[in-house]
Design a protein that fits this description.
single chain; alpha+beta; Threonyl-tRNA Synthetase, Chain A, domain 2; 4 helices; 4 strands; 45% helix
Length: 121
């Protein structure tokens, strides 16, 4: 079965949303995954709770929220890499993430071992 780039991106978004619910206890409001060359870029909107927005109003609170949220995601990074591998068949070489305490968005970047996008071109 030949899957399209869009269907793989949608499958990744759905699986990462489910991972969030299972591992973190709640999912983001929306998830969009994009395959670009040897990267999968995932944009998660609505990640922070109302309380986290209040805490992040101070610089110390902002750093605390960013650090805690990063530690939570990093502690489940093996699961995330396995999700990407099971959907794409590609090895994840590295993982990068950051969260904005202003917009409540998280960005995840999975760096793959090869240019996976070229199989769709």
């Amino acid at each position: 079965m030949n899957r399209s780039k869009g269907s793989i991106e949608a499958e990744l978004s759905k699986a990462i949303t489910q991972w969030e619910k299972d591992f973190l206890g709640r999912g983001s409001l929306s998830v969009k995954s994009d395959l670009l060359r040897d990267m999968i870029i995932v944009n998660l909107r609505g990640v922070l709770t109302p309380a986290e927005y209040v805490v992040s109003e101070s610089k110390e609170g902002m750093y605390s929220i960013k650090r805690m949220r990063t530690e939570l995601v990093e502690s489940g990074v093996d699961d995330l890499k396995n999700i990407v591998n099971s959907i794409t068949g590609q090895e994840v070489i590295s993982f990068h993430t950051d969260i904005s305490t202003k917009s409540g968005e998280r960005v995840m970047v999975f760096k793959l071992g090869s240019n996976y996008e070229k199989i769709f071109l």
